[in-house]
Amino acid sequence: MRCSSRLFLLAALLLLRHQSSAAGLHQAAHHGTTSHASLWGQRRYEDQVVLRFNVSTVEHEAALRKAVDQMLLDVWDFTINYTDIRLPNRRIRPFLSLLPEPLRTEHSILIHDVARAVAATYPSTYKGDTEFESAMRERGITPKTVQWKSGRRRHDVDDLFFKDYQRLAVISTWMSLMDNMFRGRGLVQMFNVGQSYEGKAIPALRVGMRPAKPTKEPRKTILITGGLHAREWIGVSSVNFLAWSFISAYGDDDLATKILHEFDFVFVPVLNPDGYEYTWNVDRLWRKSRQRTSMHYCPGFDLDHAFGYQWDGSEHQSDPCSESYGGDEPFQAIEASQLAQWALNETTQNNVNFVAYVDLHSYSQQILWPYAYSCSASVPNLENMQEVAMSIAKYMRLVSGEHYTVSSACEGAVTSDSSVRRLEASGGSSIDYFFHDLGAKYSYQIKLRDTGSYGFLLPNDGIVPTGEEVFSAMKGFGDYLLGNNGIERSYPAAITPGQEEQHVMQQTWKA
Ligand SMILES: *[C@@H]1O[C@H](CO)[C@@H](O)[C@H](O)[C@H]1NC(C)=O
Ligand SMILES: *[C@@H]1O[C@H](CO)[C@@H](O)[C@H](O)[C@H]1NC(C)=O
Ligand SMILES: *[C@@H]1O[C@H](CO)[C@@H](O)[C@H](O)[C@H]1NC(C)=O
């Protein structure tokens, strides 16, 4: 497809406009940092480390939880094998003194210098400009030098777009560029799912080729979100990478083309735009939204604990200062509520049927299925859910050799009944909500790279390989859904372990 140079001029102008306002923001934030820093102490992470604990009993998990709450520390991640906690060097000793004996020794330093790792995730040329922005500006001035072609992946400007993590303004400009270039074919449509607490648009791309003749059948739709937690930049870039990969594969790649005929994707790369901006301008490791809470000095809601299904106001989820604060009632967090309202409206007014939901997070390389809120709630299509998770993991491994584990989202550091306070609150999650209330038969949270060397601070050379992993996983997933496996059919009998791999291969990777 030939693209007019007028478009590029337009895009470049948009970028320039955003740049100037973003530069202003950046300055403002810089001033803000000082007062913020005095308020919060170590805002710049000097002298901070991330510790990894080996938690092997329910009692130890509960003890760790208690100490974390008491000192208001930041839990980075927890899996069945480890729990990672960020804290200043000088607080290590007091923290360890709160823990039972084995935990005092069973830990290691995962990240020695958080400040340095933080600095390394910003674009190398970060003075307000990414290379993509400068390239677009230059090309805007001499648009003849730019050649966009459809059907070919990653070259020229798009190469640059995925070379760095990008700020919100650049992402929305890039999305409207996609809309401008491909809307004519009916392939892409940009829209907003709603507005954030601070009034920022929450942008989305709908990608899919509907039949020329409108049908009465609901349009099967796969919703992909990212950035619920502001600091998980790799989730944001991966949603964009997926969108771009499907768009550019259309017409060239048979499987992707087939998938786009049968399904619409809706890509929402930044569900938490206020928090995301904040991670660029003030605090790289901010997790929550920026909405005011009842405690003035503790703003922000954890969007992944704010949805309306099995929302719970349990102890550490109801403290506004907690990193897992889900609100005082379900859907109090604006962004979660906007996404749900939009989705409901799609099903009632727009003849959309959400067949699958995928929420991209980081880190720990895990594929998780509902229910997050409890291990004792049963999932009717558990066999299919597991089978697909395993195929997704397999396809990721085939592309890059990276190992992703699969499990239910309810599992914490150790499997347990719900009588013990878990390390991370788990009610009100988005995968539970879309699975249960919106009827998305397949609902996953995927925690992307890595397994802890950088944690949330994955350097920008991880953007493309992680994106490739997710793209091949979603193509495989789409292939499975094309066979209509489990969307409308009844569930097959459980697969015995010996046949499992073979079955997965046959079912899913026919190509
Ligand atoms: C974790 O602790 C368990 C039980 O104490 C022990 O068996 C295991 O080897 C430990 N793992 C690591 C990585 O230290
Ligand atoms: C935990 O460790 C075991 C043994 O090293 C490994 O097989 C498993 O995949 C790990 N699980 C997670 C969630 O990291
Ligand atoms: C609901 O969907 C209809 C049809 O697309 C649209 O016109 C309307 O604005 C939507 N309403 C809300 C509240 O989003």
TrEMBL record:
<keyword id="KW-0862">Zinc</keyword>
<comment type="similarity">
    <text>Belongs to the peptidase M14 family.</text>
</comment>
<keyword id="KW-1015">Disulfide bond</keyword>
<feature type="signal peptide">
    <location>
        <begin position="1"/>
        <end position="22"/>
    </location>
</feature>
<dbReference type="GO" id="GO:0004181">
    <property type="term" value="F:metallocarboxypeptidase activity"/>
</dbReference>
<feature type="domain" description="Peptidase M14">
    <location>
        <begin position="164"/>
        <end position="481"/>
    </location>
</feature>
<keyword id="KW-0961">Cell wall biogenesis/degradation</keyword>
<keyword id="KW-0926">Vacuole</keyword>
<keyword id="KW-0732">Signal</keyword>
<dbReference type="GO" id="GO:0071555">
    <property type="term" value="P:cell wall organization"/>
</dbReference>
<keyword id="KW-0964">Secreted</keyword>
<dbReference type="GO" id="GO:0005576">
    <property type="term" value="C:extracellular region"/>
</dbReference>
<keyword id="KW-0479">Metal-binding</keyword>
<dbReference type="InterPro" id="IPR000834">
    <property type="entry name" value="Peptidase_M14"/>
</dbReference>
<dbReference type="Pfam" id="PF00246">
    <property type="entry name" value="Peptidase_M14"/>
</dbReference>
<dbReference type="GO" id="GO:0005773">
    <property type="term" value="C:vacuole"/>
</dbReference>
<dbReference type="GO" id="GO:0008270">
    <property type="term" value="F:zinc ion binding"/>
</dbReference>
<protein>
    <recommendedName>
        <fullName>Inactive metallocarboxypeptidase ECM14</fullName>
    </recommendedName>
</protein>
<dbReference type="GO" id="GO:0006508">
    <property type="term" value="P:proteolysis"/>
</dbReference>
<dbReference type="InterPro" id="IPR057246">
    <property type="entry name" value="CARBOXYPEPT_ZN_1"/>
</dbReference>
<comment type="function">
    <text>Inactive carboxypeptidase that may play a role in cell wall organization and biogenesis.</text>
</comment>
